[in-house]
Amino acid sequence: MKESKIPPIEIVKDPEYKVIYVNGVFGGVDPIEGRMIFYVDLLEPEMDEKVPGKMRVGKVVRKLLVDVRMSPNQFVSIAEWMNSHVKRLKKITESEKSLE
């Protein structure tokens, strides 16, 4: 049996590639697909009519940025990848605290 050669991997950015900042994500996974909807919360100020020049938060607008869908297996793989990074971060921050 011959060894299969792994093809080279080339990384390219899609013309619509962009970096976004998010405040959160919601979604879930079922037997058909995994889904994550990333969002950012924006404060919409309004003028306080009782105090000239004073502003207050009128409302929070939750702006949905991207809806990412994938297979359940890919969802689980991403969750495990994220969890490994969380464990590594906790280990780093715990060791930094012990040095204080």
Indicate the topology.
Elements: E1 24-29, E2 34-47, E3 55-70, H1 72-99
Antiparallel strand pairs: 1-2, 2-3
Tell me what you see in this structure.
There is one protein chain. The chain is 28% helix and 36% strand. The protein has one domain (24-98). The longest helix has 28 residues, at 72-99. The chain is an alpha+beta fold. It is built from 1 helix and 3 strands; from the N terminus they run E-E-E-H.
Number of helices: 1
Tell the overall outline: extended
Q: For the largest beta sheet, what order do the strands appear in spatially?
A: 1-2-3
Beta fraction of the residues?
A: 35-45%
> What's the main sheet like?
3 strands, antiparallel
Q: Catalogue the unreliable spans.
A: none
Query: Can you tell me the number of structural domains?
Result: 1
**Helix coverage percent:** 25-40%
- Which radius of gyration do the C-alpha atoms yield? 22 Å
Structural class: alpha+beta
